[in-house]
Design goal:
The chain is mainly α. The chain contains 14 helices and no strands. α4 crosses α13 and α8 runs antiparallel to α11.
Length: about 325
């Protein structure tokens, strides 16, 4: 009898294994329902990339008299990429972009972290100051560029303030000097995007466990020791995210800079985005532009992957 019952139980178990579970059926149904949307998203993402890769190995441009589908007849192998490696103007633009990024991102991070630390505590008028502090981030970049274009004119407010401080007339041509023009652009970028860094870091700062800070205080740790040993390790992932966002966005700086200087004087403030814009709209060598854009995409993708790997390690290693 027991052998028969055992056999029946085994048969039921085998049947249960063979019968798909409700969750499996739900997963299959969900996949089938979302498949059209997934195909559409894949097409939207993949088609421009494949199109860019296709154009980057040709000499095609809108002036060639051919449709883009016939660009293969202007095939130049990888000449655009070899030209890119020897293009001194490209490397100069890339160098200026790197300078802006190296100066602006750390400055925005330090100012944002200082402000986030200040706003982590309550003080009178905090909400009002908080709203004022976030206003630059809400300004359209082109409008911010025009504002700073007016501020840094020879007869503008910046020179007026310097004249008041020094007691003698100051008429510095900020936007006509190759070095000072880039400095003015960086000031504008720091002014506009420090609030974003502040907002991200403040979100991470308020998430630090209060009990750990109190325990460290009871053990005699001073504010700096608490900040270094508890706050910063807990904010590691937030800091990586904030820096990655600003590095990628700063690499693409265009609106503010173009309104302020147009890449000038000469090419003194020509970043990679301005250089691409000029090649696209003035020279119309779209095959070469596609090669540059693809190279930049690869670089920024590597930065994003490295940031994600760093975040993954931060999750695995306890702070």
């Amino acid at each position: 009898m027991s052998a028969v019952m055992t056999t029946i139980a085994e048969d039921k178990m085998d049947a249960a294994r063979a019968r798909p579970s409700v969750s499996d059926e739900g997963a299959r149904l969900g996949f089938r329902l979302t498949l059209p949307a997934q195909i559409l998203v894949l097409f939207i993402s993949a088609f421009p990339l494949l199109m860019q890769l296709y154009i980057s190995v040709t000499d095609w441009s809108p002036l060639s008299g051919l449709g883009w589908w016939n660009a293969w007849s202007l095939w130049n192998s990888f000449a655009n990429y070899t030209d890119l490696a020897a293009d001194t103007r490209f490397w100069s633009a890339l160098k200026r972009t790197a300078i802006v990024m190296i100066v602006c991102v750390p400055a925005e991070f330090l100012f944002g972290l200082a402000l986030a630390t200040l706003f982590a505590d309550d003080f009178p008028g905090k909400r009002i100051f908080y709203s004022i502090l976030l206003m630059p981030m809400m300004v359209v970049p082109a409008v911010a560029g025009y504002m700073f274009f007016m501020l840094f004119q020879s007869g503008g407010p910046v020179n007026d303030i310097l004249s008041s401080l020094t007691g003698s007339p100051v008429t510095i041509a900020w936007l006509s000097d190759p070095t000072l023009a880039l400095f003015a652009v960086m000031v504008a970028d720091i002014w506009q995007w420090t609030p974003l860094m502040f907002l991200i870091l403040l979100a991470g700062l308020v998430g630090v466990p209060e009990d750990q800070i109190k325990a460290a205080t009871l053990l005699g740790a001073n504010p700096w020791q608490r900040f270094v040993t508890i706050v910063l390790p807990k904010m590691k992932m937030i800091i990586i995210i904030a820096l990655a966002i600003r590095v990628i966005e700063n690499f693409k700086i265009f609106d503010t800079l173009y309104i302020m200087t147009g890449g000038g004087p000469g090419v003194a403030t020509e970043t990679i985005s301005v250089y691409i814009y000029k090649l696209t709209t003035q020279d119309l060598i779209w095959g070469y532009v596609a090669a540059i854009a693809l190279a930049i995409l690869i670089v920024l993708s590597i930065v994003a992957v490295l940031a994600m790997k760093r975040m993954a390690r931060s999750r695995e290693v306890p702070a």
